[in-house]
Description:
Layout: H1 2-20, H2 25-48, H3 61-88, H4 93-115, H5 122-135
Amino acid sequence: MREIVSIVFGLACGITSAIFGGWDFALQALVGFIVIDYITGIMLAGIFKKSKKSASGALNSHTGFKGIVKKCVMMMLVSMGYWLDNVFGWDFFRQAIIFALLAREAISILENTGLMGIPMPIPLKQAIDILRTKGGDEDDDGSKK
């Protein structure tokens, strides 16, 4: 059993390194933000019934599945960045993609917590509104938030 666990862990680490360029802190942070965003989204819809992603504000399996698909595509973008860096011999695309996705996830987490009623400083609320407006953030149906 110990050997099987070691082999599976080794394969997972090797695949992560080959696909995403390693398990550095930037990637760890992105995965952490993705998990926190998804959990706060589920809590917002399941407990508070205030999700902007469904008509009723409650949990919706189709919306949840779309969220998982989006998170998977985000990880594909990180892979693309890593591969582009290797093609050009740079160390830019992967980090830029991770930083952009980190900012997007952070905004989403703050929005979720704000909708839960957790107090947020006014300057932070204003900064989120500015970033959302200037970033052209859109809902799943393509309409502006």
